[in-house]
Specification:
The protein is an alpha/beta fold and 214 residues long. The chain is 29% helix and 22% strand. It has seven helices and seven strands; from the N terminus they run βαβαββαβαααβαβ. Strands 3-2-1-4-5-7-6 form a seven-stranded mixed β-sheet, sandwiched between helices. It starts with 10 loop residues before the first strand and ends in a 6-residue tail after the last strand.
Amino acid sequence: MVKDLNGKGKRFIELGGFPGYHCVFFHKYLGYDVSLLDYYINREIIARVEEINGLRSGTIKVIEADVFNLHSSEKYDLVFSAGLVEHFQDIPLIIQRHTELTSDEGTVLILIPNFLGINGMVQRLFDKENLKKHNLECMKLEKLKQILSAYKNSFDEIQIFYYGKPMIWLEQKGKNFLPRMIKLISLFIGLLPFRGKWFSPYICIRMDKQKPLQ
């Protein structure tokens, strides 16, 4: 998914990514100059994340703003989000916002949880309230392909695929033992050699304005 990316001298922004763990990864291991945009940012927590990960203060540049109300001419070589798109009803609009921040030779990388397979079954059984917070329409590949077809002339390559080994999870709430039990089960099913709609925990969208090197 990212093994061909070299971020040295390039700019990265994560949308909706507080407290910045992905920024740490893309800076430390891929060399990007990283920024974080979210509607709420606690700068003390950002400073703590930097300290724990051995980064100098200010490595993660913060932009505290609503993604739809950000008025900026800044462009980024990699625009990333994980666990953001599914919280919006207007899927085309939030994807469009990613593309608007992308530089002329940039890449959009979006991760969406897949709740239409076994992980979704777990959510329906044990945490329907959490499931209701997610727009399941954006987890349908055909729906995404239809939306992304609007960008076939502005991006050289557009990929949509299921990503990751089998995994299930529940949100931790208090001292409830169930999420811990689900985590143990997840460790076991992660050993299974299956991928795709029923087993992969994520859907990945990657849009490149220049085709990645082979």
